[in-house]
Design goal:
This protein has about 60 residues and is α+β, with helices and mostly antiparallel strands. It has one domain. About 20% of the residues lie in helices and about 25% in strands. The chain has 1 helix and 3 strands. A 3-stranded antiparallel β-sheet has the order 1-3-2, with no helix packed on it.
Amino acid sequence: MSKFAKTPEPPYYAIIFTTIKSENQVGYAEMNARMFELAQQQEGYLGIESARGEIGLSVTY
């Protein structure tokens, strides 16, 4: 069994977005939802993966 994801033939791209958590979270959830919505509308969209802690990281393919 392969440990790598099955991907289409290149070229394809990954967009990496980072955030630093602050105490002021006003509007964060709404902006996150909007960014996800916009990413899904892009031609060739494959998916998005996110991890959050003190630093947030999202990778969109």
